[in-house]
């Protein structure tokens, strides 16, 4: 963990130094679940995945609950600070003409997973597919504001964070009342997750040529795995991403790291 953390810190500072003089022009797009959410679910009236009440946020600036599922900052906030930029606002807080559309956006939503059905019992959340749709809508707003060419450059030069995967286990596969755990063996489930994510990343990044991209695959819940074969399953999922995306990533100047939190 220590080494990975160090690698992340090094990558961030390498990125920051690689940027032209003003890092304030760096734009980040954050996708994910409760580990990276900054308040989208506050805008979903019926969502049961909420963090807008005490004592969430007691250690955050202002000391009030913001929708972050933590007493303090999320990993997105921490990385933004390290990059010297403000942490981007929740997508659902923006109004159509908001200039904030040009300064990076956070689409993360507590309860979200790679799969549509993950976290369904929270009633409302932005699944990764929803987040990708929101990003698509954001690009339309950005195009309308600054034109096609500038908008493409704007999103191509951005840095992307994706933190997803835990809920596909904790709020799906490992829950006895969810169908996926009955329907799929673990190997099949890993295959479903990886192929789904593969398609989602293809859609997310389709028309662009060059990205700065940081992929987090949380392995936080490894200890809850039902048996050791599930842990092996996760490792094979992670190595799948290294095999498939490392090449893609190197060829496109994308930084990839797996954050293993256990
Ligand atoms: C998941 O939801 C998206 C819409 O957000 C839909 O296009 C897609 O077909 C769904 N996937 C599955 C496997 O149901």
UniProtKB/TrEMBL annotation:
This is GDSL lipase/esterase. It comes from Arabidopsis suecica (Swedish thale-cress). Keywords: Signal. The keyword Signal applies. Residues 1-18 form the signal peptide. InterPro entries: GDSL, GDSL_esterase/lipase. GO terms for molecular function: hydrolase activity, acting on ester bonds. Belongs to the 'GDSL' lipolytic enzyme family. The keyword Cytoplasm does not apply.
